[in-house]
Specification:
Blueprint (H helix, E strand, L loop, with lengths): L1 H24 L9 H28 L8 H21 L1 H30 L15
Helix pairs in contact: 1-2, 1-3, 1-4
Length: 137
């Protein structure tokens, strides 16, 4: 029974980590993924669940001789682990992170150009782009 609990806790921690990672790295995060919630609620919760899962699995492994696991418990644990791996794979974490990075780079470039144009309106000598006004000779 403890194999199932430990595997489920560890799987929940891994899936939770991936969800929070994708939510926090999104260039336009929702209210649920602001820095304060991620740092003070989600991360400690995920770490706690992961530590509990590891602790329960280690306890189960240490007591394997006195409390041998049933074949059903091992099969359920394997199914939970496989389900978690499949869920993480279906989230396409690597591809989404690369997409978010490209999206953020585009937003940074647009913001930099906006700042340059705002500076050019106040001081024409600072902007060296195609929209620079011509000086009279």
């Amino acid at each position: 029974m403890f194999y199932i609990i430990g595997t489920a806790a560890l799987a929940a921690a891994v899936i939770g980590f991936c969800v929070v990672l994708l939510g926090a790295r999104n260039p336009r995060p929702s209210v649920w993924f602001q820095g304060v919630l991620v740092a003070n609620v989600y991360v400690p919760l995920i770490i706690g669940i992961g530590i509990v899962g590891i602790g329960v699995l280690v306890r189960s492994i240490i007591l394997v001789k006195s409390e041998p696991p049933s074949l059903l418990a091992l099969a359920i644990s394997m199914a939970i682990a496989a389900g978690a791996a499949l869920a993480v794979q279906q989230m396409k974490v690597r591809e989404r992170l690369a997409f978010y990075q490209r999206k953020q780079a585009i937003r940074d470039t647009i913001e930099r150009v906006r700042r340059q144009r705002a500076d050019a309106r106040t001081d024409p000598g600072t902007f060296s782009g195609p929209d620079r006004p011509k000086r009279a000779a």
